[in-house]
Amino acid sequence: MVKLLGNIIFLICSAPSVCNTHLNIASIFNGNLVPQIQVLHGGLSSPGVYKFRKNDKEYVLRLSHPNRSISERERTVQCYKLASNNGIAPIIKYTNADGVIVSDYINGNYVSKTDLQSKKLLPELAKTIKKLHSIDGFPSSKDIFTIRQSFEKQVLLLNSSLVLKASKYLKLVDRILLKDKVTLVATHNDLKPENIFFNNKFMIIDWEAACLGYSYFDLATILIFYNLSDDEQNEFLEAYYNRKPTIMEKEKINLFKQEVLGYYGMAYLMLSVYKKVYDVTGGKVT
User: Fold this and answer.
1) Can you name the residues that pair with 52 across neighbouring β-strands?
2) pLDDT, tens only, 130-177
3) How far apart (Å, rounded) are the C-alpha atoms in residues 38 and 52?
4) 106-115, 117-126, 183-192: least confident range
5) Which among 72, 63, 140, 48 has a CA at the least distance from the CA of 282?
6) Helices 215-225 and 247-274 sit at what angle, rounded to 10 degrees?
7) Which one, of 165, 206, 201, 166, lies nearest residue 188 by Cα?
8) What is the pTM of this model?
9) What is the 3-state secondary structure (H, E, C) of the chain?
10) What are residue 40's DSSP bridge partners?
11) For the segment 7-59, what is each residue's pLDDT rounded down to a tens digit?
C-alpha cells in the first residue's frame, strides 16, 4: 500500500497541475519524490487521506470516495479552492478531475471547547464562519434533509420503534423548516471540532460535504458539537451577525439543532449497525 501511494504521489507531482496556478507540480517539489507516508483519519465520508513529507515540508494527499460521481468530485474541488482562495482552508498544490487534492498540511491539533474558552476564540470563529458563508461560487448539491433521509432509509430496515419515532419527528421538523424560503449560502456541512484548526487564524479542512446550503446548519453544528452554554451561544451568534440575533433566527437555529442531531445520529447509527463506510455527500453504502 505504501509503495502504491508513493507511486500515486510521484505521478501527481510529475503531472501538470490543474490548480489556478497552472504550475507543474514537479517544479514545486523540485524533482523526484521519496515520500514518508502516514495515514490520516477522515470524517464520515472516509476518503483516503495521507500525509507525506518533501524537503522538510508536509503535505496532505486526499483521494475521493470511490462511490462519488464526477460532478460530486468537481464540487468538492471547487468548494475547496474557493475556501483556500479566501484564506480559510489549506493552500492547494494540486487537484485533478478524479477529485485528488494535494494541499499544505496544517500543523497542530483541532480546536477543542477548552481552546475556545481559554483563548477566547469564539468571536473569531464566528467571523470565520461568516466569511465562509459570504463566499460566492459554491455549487449546489443534495441538501442535508435529503442526505439524512438516505441514512434513515438504511436504519429503518432495523424495524426499531425508537428509530421510527425519531424519523417521524424529524419529518415534522423538515416541514417546518422547508415551509419558508431561505437564501442558500456557501456551507461546509461538517463543522465538527476535528475539522477546525487554529494556528494564528482558523483553518477548516474536509470539504467533502461543502455546497450551497443552509447557514443555520453550520451554525447549529458548532453549537451542538462544542456544547456551548447559553452565554457562549449568545457571544458566538452576536459575533456572527455583528448584532443580537432576532427571535426568528434563534428559533431557526434551535430547529436546525434537531436536524444536526438527527443527521449525525442517523449517520453514526447506520455506520455502527452495518459496520460499513458511507459517503455523507450522497454516495451509496460500500
Assistant:
1) 59
2) 999 999 999 999 999 999 999 999 898 888 898 999 999 999 999 999
3) 6
4) 106-115
5) 72
6) 70
7) 206
8) 0.84
9) CHHHHHHHHHHHHHCECCCCCCCEHHHHHCCCCCCCCEEECCCCCCCCEEEEEECCEEEEEECCCCCCCHHHHHHHHHHHHHHHHCCCCCCEEEECCCCCEEEECCCCCECCHHHHHHCCCHHHHHHHHHHHHCCCCCCCCCCHHHHHHHHHHHHHHHCCHHHHHHHHHHHHHHHHHHHCCCCCEEECCCCCHHHEEECCCEEECCCCCCEEECHHHHHHHHHHHCCCCHHHHHHHHHHHHCCCCCHHHHHHHHHHHHHHHHHHHHHHHHHHHHCCCCCCCCCCCC
10) 49
11) 444 444 444 433 333 333 444 445 455 456 677 765 555 557 888 887 778 89
pLDDT of residue 63: 85
* Grid coordinates of 265: 445520529
Q: How crowded is the C-beta side of 71, counted as CA atoms within 13 Å?
A: 7
**Cα–Cα distance measured from residue 258 to residue 31, given in angstroms and rounded to the nearest whole number:** 51
* Amino acid 43: pLDDT: 54
- The cell 442526505 sits on which residue? 147
Instruction: For residues 286 and 279, give the distance between their C-alpha atoms in angstroms, rounded to a whole number.
Output: 9
Is 232 within 8 Å of 242 (Cβ atoms)? no
For 106, 196, 229, the CA distances from 109, given in Å and listed in that order, are: 9, 9, 23
